Amino acid sequence: MPEISPADATDPCAREPIRTPGAIQPHGALMLLGPPDAGGDRDVLSASINLATLLGLDARPTRLGALPDGVRLAGLLDGLDTPGGPPFTDLLSLPAGRFQLDARSTPQGLLLEFEPAGDVGPDAGSFYRHLGELIDAMGLLDHEDDLCRRVATETRRLTGFARVLIYRFAPDWHGRVVAEDGDGRLPSYLGLRFPASDIPAQARELYRRHRLRLIPDADYAPVPLDPPLLADGSPIDLGPAGLRSVAPVHVEYMRNMGTAASMSVSLLVDGALWGLISCHHPEPKTVAPPLRALCDFLGQLLALQIGARTRGEHAARRLALKRVENELLARVARAADFPSGLAASPEAWLGLVNAAGAAVVVEGAILTAGRTPPIDRLRDLAGWLKRGQDTPLWHTDALARHWPEAADLGESASGLLAIAISQLHASWILWFRPELPHSVDWGGDPRKPAAAPGERLSPRKSFDLWREQVRGQSEPWHSAELDAAADFRHAIVSFVLRQAEERAALTDQLQRSNKELESFSYSVSHDLRAPFRHIVGYAELLRERHADGLDDKSRHYLDNIIDSALSAGRLVDDLLNFSRLGRASLDMTRVDMNKLVAEVKQSLAPDTAGRAIDWRIAPLPDAWGDAAMLRQALANLIDNAVKYTRDASPAVIEIGGEALAHELRFWVRDNGTGFDMAYVGKLFGVFQRLHRAEDYAGTGIGLALTRRIIDRHGGRIDASGALGQGACFRFALPVPSLSPSPEPANG
After folding, report:
1. What is the top-level taxon of the source organism (predicted)?
2. What is the pTM (predicted TM-score) of this model?
């Protein structure tokens, strides 16, 4: 059945020189001709040693013109020297009888094969009548396997082989017998699978390039070429030759199958090798060239039918999935963003590729539908895809084979179809299928080694039924589903780009509005400073001048005026600082963060006097930024820690930092009042408070000011805490590639 047959894909058999065996089979003769001379005659560069005997010649010719009717033949072959062109076929009358000539051009010269024309048999004459019946029947057969079964029956009727199989290749090149017709003398292989190593890649390529192959007698004695090498020392490529001698291991493989003769017809669908019509016989058997041509025609007819049905099925599936895609895109377009649009339409999202689960991962956020792995595993999977896959669409029906960490995810994610929606971030739309446990019937154990160490190379000897239980594998993704996912990706990427453009336009508007607001805020804040100072000053003068004449209530009124004016003044100062941050340029330099912390701690000494505070300050790495702004940010965070630990005894304030390859991280942690994480989103907003103003002094701008400082430096800031258990504020600053690499302060 196959050309090469080791059980192990790594077997040396896969590297056998099957194109250059240096010999042919004895049921024909071969010669290789050089280019034509001025008169059209050609030199014989090499020939099989049986050429003269088989053709009935007195001696092996050295020139094409020496053959009977060689001059006419030279004219027929004129212009056939373009490699890759169609072969030329003719019937020749030679001293030993009538021969079919097959001539084809190769890069090494013209390859001529001579084979006795033979008898086409009694049934060949009725072939065209049967062919008409077969074509009519093909239109009535609904299933591909039924079509293959009918062709197997017709091929066996036509040729008389004891067993005819239709052998289909899977995407991984394992093969399965999908149809069979036999007379019972050879065992049935119907439904059995054979490993990809039975037909290595180089043999499959020969099947793809040359559709028909005959071995009339497995016990043949190879006929050598003379000479075996060309003048430049290169071996003669017999890949295109139907008479090419096969590898000894294949002959032994045939004997192990109980097969003395075989013939194969390649089934090519859209230029790709779909499968084979494989014929076997327990005794030697010759099939005449015209009859083989009929079988080749039958194979092409089957391949055309399979191709048409495959394309029709694909189109029908694609049309159905297109309707789902259009519905899903319409819903996504109405949503605020595409992840929420997907999550709001789970049925369409899953139905787009007939998946059992789906997830979308965008900038660390994950939304799911159906049955999926846990969120943390999805995040790991997205990272693995980003690191290891450079294609916008990737799929598998056995994820654990590629990502071993998925070994325990069979119930939700044996199959994965992933489309990338960002070239920069680990952002993916993922579809999942659960494992589909099933059994596979093999023609012999596919794991059995071809040869023990030290033994000669040999094929496997057993073709007995061997059943494998398959786990960790899902239903394969259909090509129509892959096309649907690819089209959906293009639509989503376009949607994301359109949203990005809209956001960019809005950002421009917001930036202009912010600049106007900052200018307004700066002007108002600047103009309000003097009036509030005047209020405080005149109120204090009034209290001093009439100190003896004021009653307690009047003094209380004046004190409230002064306190309110001072508070309003501080608010104006903070607003002025906040607005200045958006206008001021950064004076970037190396910043000693240890020095800044010491300065801030010293400035807070009046507020911490008499308090029990456990300062835990670790050595901090140097930063790269605007020293004044970073001092302000640290001051706000440390002042908050001091303020909100006033009821703790002792108060613990921890300040630390670390230098990483791409960023610097700092934190201020305390054991104070803390906050509810449900309101963490409010922390860094202007005038946002999580505690009552009368409980803790402040304007509500400090954290917003800190965030703006960190944002201006291209960093990020976040916080965590719990009521009554303290809070931790963390910020990170980038390490610019053009700046000196920060080093820890302690060296």
Report:
1. Bacteria
2. 0.62
